[in-house]
Specification:
Length: about 180
């Protein structure tokens, strides 16, 4: 990782670079760690598809739009993710002609691990910047996202925890030995 003199930050860098460089560092770190922790079969493109898959499931066309790619490209990624066990397709209850893509157990494990790794990286960055600066940075980015029309619907980590609870609750109860 290269070091940039502090006096240059914000003066010479365009906003795109200031947003992109930390994202690239996050993405590269998370990708390496996910591979080491049992998810070696996901490429950055697969990760992009998983990021836009909503906790309750999504239609392929919705995912393609959120990811900024063609439906054909998203279909290709979903086909691969389905073959490797991260997602499953189900009939859309609102329109039987359409399908909804949902996380499988493996997909939820991946999402939970990715969320955990992002949290760890955030703690590391907080140590580097200081807790107050990190809180301000997150607040400012959240304000910018909202000003640009994005609405926070909850994190995948929150959804993953809720889903795990629901899966445990919905499993058939087994008889206990006495």
């Amino acid at each position: 990782m290269s070091t940039v003199p502090t006096q240059r930050l914000g003066q010479d860098f365009m906003i795109g670079a200031l947003l992109t460089l930390p994202y690239q560092a996050l993405h590269q770190s998370i990708t390496r760690q996910l591979e080491a922790r049992g998810f070696p079969d996901l490429t950055p493109s697969h990760a992009a598809a998983m990021r836009v898959l909503e906790p309750g499931g999504s239609r392929l066309t919705e995912m393609a739009g959120r990811a900024g790619m063609t439906k054909q490209s998203m279909k290709y990624l979903i086909d691969q993710l389905e073959r490797t066990g991260y997602v499953a397709r189900e009939p859309d209850p609102r329109d039987r002609r359409a399908q909804v893509i949902r996380h499988t157990e493996r997909g939820w494990r991946y999402a939970a691990m990715a969320a955990e790794l992002v949290h760890e990286l955030e703690l590391d960055w907080s140590r580097k910047l200081g807790a107050d600066k990190m809180r301000r940075l997150k607040r400012l980015l959240a304000e910018l996202a909202e000003a640009l029309g994005f609405r926070y619907k909850g994190s995948l980590a929150e959804a993953s925890a809720l889903s795990a609870t629901a899966r445990r609750r919905d499993r058939p109860k087994t008889a206990e030995r006495t």
